[in-house]
Model the fold of this input.
Amino acid sequence: TRVVIASSNKGKLNEFNIMLNALDIQVLPQADFDIPEVEETGQSFVENAILKARNACKYSGLPALADDSGLVVDALQGNPGIFSARYAGPNATDQDNIEKLMSALQSVPEEGRSARFHCALVFMLHEKDPTPLVCQGNWEGRIHTRITGNGGFGYDPVFWVEELNCTAAELSAEAKNERSHRGLALKQLKQQIQDKLNR
Ligand code: ITT
Done:
């Protein structure tokens, strides 16, 4: 069975490739198809994941898995949240976004820097699937005051993982997937995807 991963984010695609590789499905990146980017007009991670999955099904004719995720920072009233990818502007790089976050939190002491990554995953068989699968995961942490580590992507170099005393960018892919918002959401979703494909 072929499944489209409705994402053009290389960091996400890497993680999905690792985590789905034991399943008996062929996962294809959205870039293998002529799929226009959908406008993320939802107000929540789940809504945006549904929009992305439906769009990928529509243009590929295949089942699709979509991920909408982001960083929710308490001291910033939940921002950047669903706007995490474009926090510093429409063409922002990961580094631009990190710099904007660091300056927004400049005067906030360590104990006020709590944050979590959130991930909503949606799996749909086809564009009009009335029963999409939805799973979500959270990863609690803190925004560090220094940028450290070369692994992962996005905000990983400033996401401090208390129990391991390092940032998410200093973890191996395996250690990140074991505890991340995406890893936890996908762990719940995996069996449901297989069951839905075999029905
Ligand atoms: P697609 O929509 O094509 O999947 P995107 O990057 O635009 O790619 P989102 O709208 O879901 O995806 O934005 C997610 C952003 O949140 C992402 O660009 C990162 O900045 C951040 N993010 C999500 N998961 C992350 C992780 O595991 N580590 C670090 N940053 C993460």
